[in-house]
Structures are given as C-alpha cells and as structure tokens.
Amino acid sequence: MDRKKMASRTATVKRKTGETDIQITLNLDGNGKSDVDTGIGFFDHMLISFAKHGLFDLSVKVAGDLNVDCHHTIEDTGIVLGQAIKEALGDKKHIKRYGSVILPMDESLILCALDLSGRPYLVFDAEFSTDRVGYFDTEMVKEFFYAISYTAGMNLHIKQLAGSNNHHIIEGMFKAFSKALDEAVVKDRRITDQLSTKGTLL
Asked: Is residue 138 classed as helix, strand or coil in its secondary structure?
C-alpha cells in the first residue's frame, strides 16, 4: 500500500517523572523529518538518523537529570518511543509484522531483526571498547533498545557482526533498527487482518 494514500499513523506520548520530562510525537508514515532535543548531542544524532532512515517523522523533547548522568534521559526516551510506536500502530491490521536488515556502517556490520508480536523480548549482542561516545554512555545502547522492546511489545534482535569504531557500531544499530521497523510497519493489501494464526498481535 502507498504510504501517501492512507491516513498517517501518528501518536504523541508524554511522560513526566522526578527524573525526566519527555514528549515524543511519531508519524510512522512520514518522510524522515525530525526535531530532536534530548540534551545529549550524540543521542540527538542517533534519533535523527533513526527518523531519516526509517522515513518516520519524529519530534523528541527531553528535559532530564543530566547533572546526575545520561541514564534516565536515554532509558526513559526509549520507554516513551516504544509507547509511541505501539500507539501509532493501533490495531496492527494489514502490517507485515516482521522486519530485518543487515546494514553496513563503514567497517561495522549490524544485523537487526524484529517482530511486532506484542511479546517483548530483546537479544542484544555487541561489544564496545570505550565507555562513552560524546556524552552518551555506551552501556546505555542496550538499555535504550530494551526499553523500546518492552513498551512497544516487540521481539527485537540486534547483533554486531563486525566493527571496531564505537560511533559506527552504535549508529549502525540505530539505522538498522529504523530500516527493520520501517519494513515491519508497512501495510500489505494481501494481509486482510492481523498477520497471526492466533488472530491477534496484542
């Protein structure tokens, strides 16, 4: 189905705690426009790449306790983005459900495969040689994708097949995730309801 011929699947999610204040608007049927401000430059770059390569329109505004560290800002953004994906998908009728890609980023090579099954599960296999890229702690990459998988109800596999530069590895993961998600959310006119023998993806 042509993206432009169907109503946009859009969600806005707000979440405020004692640690973060976040608002995200996601349009699954966009064209890659983004407006991102998390307070962490490298994280902004990753989310902008996610929107651009998945052809999602994305607005992210985050006020977090960066005076403590980056943990709450990154993890909570993953929670809210996962919620936005779930809400924008709605009843999941007609979607392909599965998406996968092996994506090169210079010397790095990343595999990402996902299933919008409604059942959250993350398998993450990667090694980083530095603790930080900019002001982004590399250990937070797994936490970010775990948060998305849990709140979106997504089975998500991310595996580093090759790579030595931490910037390239992480950016490859964000781009691979966006391409796999883009594939999974596409509607197919041959799928008359939800793509499940159980009759539900909720």
From this structure: coil
What is the Cα–Cα distance from 148 to 82, expressed in whole angstroms? 4
pTM score of the predicted model:
0.92
Q: Are 22 and 15 in contact (CB under 8 A)?
A: yes
Angstrom distances, CA of residue 177 to CA of 25, 77, 121, 170: 18, 16, 15, 11
The SS3 of residue 43 is helix
Joined tokens for residue 48: 């902008």
CB atoms within 10 A of CB 56: 24
State the amino acid at position 40 in one-letter form.
I
Q: What mean pLDDT do residues 130-143 have? A: 97
Strand 132-133 and strand 121-125: the pairing is unpaired
Burial class (CB in 10 A: 0-12, 13-18, 19+), 192: exposed
Neighbour count for residue 91 (Cβ, 10 Å): 11
- Quote the tokens at residue 6: 């169907």
Beginning with the edge strand found earlier in the chain, give each strand of the sheet holding 10-16 in spatial order: 10-16, 20-27, 57-64, 34-37
For the cut 80, the answer to whether the pLDDT of residue 82 exceeds it is yes
Longest Cα–Cα distance of the chain, Å, equals 51
Q: Dihedral sign for Cα 78, 64, 51, 90, please.
A: positive
Residue 67's SS3 state is coil
- φ and ψ of 74, to 5 deg: -75, -50
Question: What does the pLDDT read at residue 189?
Answer: 82
3-state DSSP assignment of residue 30? coil
